[in-house]
Amino acid sequence: MRVAIISDIHSNVEALKAVLDEIEQDNISIIVNLGDLVGYNANPKECVELVQERKIISILGNHDRAATELKYAEGFNILAYQALVWSAKTLTNGHKEFLNSLQHTKVLWDRYLLFHGVPENPDGYIFYFFQAKKVFNYMRKKTPGVRVAFFGHTHHRAVWQRDVRGKVSKVEISGDHLLLDAEQMYLINPGSVGQPRQKQWKASYLVFTNDPETIHFRSVAYDVNSAQNKIREAHLPEYLAERLESGL
Ligand SMILES: [Fe+2]
Q1: Overall pTM > 0.90
Q2: Which end of the chain has fewer surrounding CB within 10 Å, N or C?
Q3: Cβ-based neighbours of 128, under 8 Å, separated by 6 or more
C-alpha cells in the first residue's frame, strides 16, 4: 500500500495542485492531510474544495480550528492572525462546517496515528527532544500497538525515533528515503505543502509504503509567482508573499 502524506497546505492551491498531479502518477492508494488547510495564503476555498473532491483523509490543524472560531487565533503572530481573519471572512459557512467536522487525531489501519501538532492539541509542537519524548509516552499509554505517528505543524521535515531501551533521538535525514526499523517507534513530519520553512521553496510531502515500512520524502516545484501575486491582490501582508520564495 502506498500512502501520500501531506500537511500544512495553508491555502496555497498552486502548491497543492502540483503535489496532487505528482501523486496521481504514483500509484497511490490513499492521501492523508495532517491539517492546516487554510491560513497564510490566498486560496482557502479552493483548497478546502479540492480536499473534499479528492476525498483526502484530513485532520484538524490549529489554523483550521481558528478559521471556525476566531478566539483560537488570539495566540497567533500578527501576520498569521491577519491572514486568518481574512480567511475566515472568505470561507463560506459550508467550508467552515467541513473544517469544524475534522478530528484532532485518527488511527489509520489500527497502526498509524495521525495528528497535527501533538495528539491532545493542534497548537502543540514537536521541535525538541522533550516534546518528542512526551508524545511517545502518550502513544505508549493511549494508543498501544501503534509504533508510528505522522504529524505536521512545524513545516519542517523531521523523523524522531524511540528505541527499545526508551532512548529518544532525532534521525538525520540524509537521503530522500528511510527504511523504518520494526523494533522502534517513530514520529514523522512530511514538511509543508503550502509554506515550507526549510530554506527551500518547493512543496514538501512524503510517500509511505507499509511493506516494508519506508518513507520517501518528495519536493515539487510549483508556480510560486502566481501564489505570491494572489497574496498581494488580496492585500495580505507582503512578508507572506516574500517568505514563499525563500522557504522561511
Ligand atoms: Fe501550519
Answers
A1: yes
A2: N
A3: none
